[in-house]
Structure formats: C-alpha cells, structure tokens
Amino acid sequence: MEYEPLAPKPAPVYSQGFRYNGTLTVKGIPRFEPSEVRRLIFEPKGATPDQLYEWRLETQRTATRPWLEAQTRHYGMELRPRDSYQKDELRNLLREESLKPDFTDIRRQYRAFYNGSFEKVKAEWEAQCAAYKESCFSGRRQADFDNLATLEEKLNFDIDMFMETYYSSRETLPSPMLFRGINFDVVMEAVAQVPGLYSQKSGNDFQKCLFVGWDKKEVKQACKEYLTLAKENATARRLRIKQSHALSHEKKVDRAIAWRMLAHQEYLERRSRERGNHMIEGSYVVEMTFRRANREEYTPERQFMDIRATTYPGVYEATFNFTPAMEGVMVLAETEEAVQKWISFFEPDPAQAPAPTTSNNSEPQAGSKRKKNQTNDGENGSSAGPNAKRMRAASPHVLEGYSTYFMRWRGRVGIPLYKDTYRNEEGEGFVYFLESNKAQFIIDEVKVPLLADATKGYKVSDQPKFTASKWAS
User: Fold this and answer.
1) Non-local CB neighbours of 398 within 8 Å, separated by 6+ positions
2) How many whole angstroms separate alpha carbon 331 and alpha carbon 340?
3) Could you tell me what percent of the chain has a pLDDT over 70?
C-alpha cells in the first residue's frame, strides 16, 4: 500500500513585504503596542537623570533603524519612494503618525494588503499547519523519524520532533553533542528556546560544526578540543595533498622520461641497420638529479644537449639546457690543448695582453681598500669574464667502455631556493661517451649547486634539433 507523501513543516508565507507564520512580522520584527512605540520614540517628561540615561540605553538597543522601518510598515504608513531613510527621519515620521487619533487602530496593520489578500495568506498558513498536524497524528512521521540512522538526519527531518525527543530532558543527552551538515541558524534558534541548553559553532569550511549541550563550560571545552584536532587534521590533509601532487608529478615525469627514452631506443634500432662511423655529434635527451630545487621545476620536454662539429678537427661545440640547474654552451675535444686552441680564436691570451699605462707619466693613484679587493676578486675568478680564471677540473675517471672528452663550459647557473634566478659562470669537466656507438654520455665533475649527481645523455638523432649557441657569443 502506497502512502501519501508526508506534509512538510509549515513554511512562512511572504506577501507585501510581510512574513506570516501566525504573526505578521517585517524582517523578523513584530508589531509593538502603540503605547510601547510612543514610549520608545518620545523622551519621557519629568524623568530623573538616571531614568533618562536608562531610557536612552533601551532606545539605542531597541529603536534601531530596522525596528523603526518595521513599525512604519506595521502602522500602515505610506513613505515617499526613496532608496533609504535615515534613522532620525524615520523617528520623526513615526512621532507625527503616533499623534493621530487612529494610531491605535489594529486595522492600520493590514493597509498594505489589498482586498482579501491577507485572508488568502492566513488561509495558506493554516492549511499548511493542518496538513502537518494530520501528518504528525498519523504516526507515520514518527515512524519515519525513528527509521533515520543519524542524529543529523533526524534533525534535518523535523527539528521540533528532534528537540522533543532528545532535549526535553537532561538525562537523554547529558554530554555535548557534535552536529554537521545542518542549518546552523535554525538549530541555534531552536536551542535558544530551550531553557538551560547551549550551542556554539566551531571550525571553518568543511570542518564547520555545532556543539549542543546543557553545560556551557563543557560546550566551550568541547569546541576548544575540536579546534585543536581540526588544526591537526588540516595540517595532515595539506600534507597528503602535497604528497599526492608530488606523486602525480613524479609519475608525469617518469612517463615523459619513458617517452623520451623510447626515441632513444628507436634511434638505436635505426642506427643498427645503417652503416657508417659513429660520431658524437647529434641531439641528446638528458636525465639528471637535482638538489635543493623543486622537482616540479624539472620539465623533461626541454632538457637536451645538441653537439655540432666545428671547423677545427676533433673539436665540438655543444648547446645544452639542464634547467633549472644550468644552461649554456660547451666546447669538447679529446685533449685539453685542442679545446684551449679553439677558444683562443675568440679570447686572447691574458698573458700577452699589454700592461696598463698611466697618462702623463703619473703614478697610479692609490684606491680605496674596497676597490682593491674588487680588482683582486676579479683576478681570482669570481667574475665570469672571458679572462677570468676557472676552477681547474680534477683528473678524469677511468670508465671501462667509455672514451673521455675534456670540456669547458660557460652559461647560466641556477641559484638554490630562488626560482628562475641565475648567475653567469664557467667551468671545466669531462664528458664520457659510450665507446661502442657514441649514443650515450655521462657528464661528471661539474660543480653547480643544483646538480646532485652525474648527468646522463641519450642520443635520439644524428642531427642537432635546436638552435645553436656559440662560444664567441
């Protein structure tokens, strides 16, 4: 057997700016008796200073601007069309109206309703109440209420029935109870109507809740403990989100690296079917490990190194991008002498530079100590100028199956803890190429802040793919 749906709780009926739920109100403010209105808007005559002080305090609390607006509506006053009235203007208008003989007539409250419209509003409210009352008396509403699983579901189903069931006696729920997913304002209003019962909101956003209990101190303590736990949960949640994002990025990086390695495998298969000498020139994808840098800054789509042969036999120039660690250009050869000879075409030997002279045979003026230190610093290689001294590379390692190339590099080096911030530097090191096919390399002894280990390169093409950077530029 199918039952008719349960009637909802009666909802207030709105009409002509009034709210009717058995009593007419304007923005929740009912009609005050005429004598009370006059008492609040007229200063009492013959009052003592203390009485006058008490009256002003009461007026400030009660006769507010919303209250004055509501009383003008309740007493049928027709105000001129305006956006808003000041508090003093409303008080003066209400004073003038209160002096009229018919001010006490209750029928003034219904002037805003046209013929029969208030009777329709009242009939709609009474019909809702009757249907709801019949639904409650049928017993089905109580049965549906009892079948609900949680207190929140019961509270949202029928707050009056909930308060009657659980908060008509202190013994039913003696300790503070926590509620989530409810209409906080409605519940707090219902709690305020029960003598000795307290409520307090706690938490923010998705952790927002309401505690209800008979002991005010216990309610406050429960809120305090909940806030402490909520902060711990929020910290743990942020950590989980951060870890989840990091794991997601790691997987993305791994997929990108796997995709790039696929190009290397295809190159090896293609090269195995071709004949010819194996040369180091070509395009390489690189793999590296960072320190003191966000993993998110590593974008495998752009890390590369392109090697090109120069006009000098056995000397190569490479354009590299190892961001965020470093990027720039390097010169490679199997001997250090070949590298230095190629570089000397663009940079004169500082030992052959003419000695500085002074005009008019005058003695050089003694500069400040700070300027001398700046000059010495430049001579000691702190600048990145063409004649600055470099950190000498250590002896190369002996790697079985690899051929060793000496290299010098210059470019931009990333600064730890400062994203997208670089400084110009240059240095030396060694590149070890796989002897069998020159399709892989390892760069070691490059001391830059963000590189943790050796950089590995995997060849994907015999032809460079990116725009070349020149040592001379």
Assistant:
1) none
2) 9
3) 84
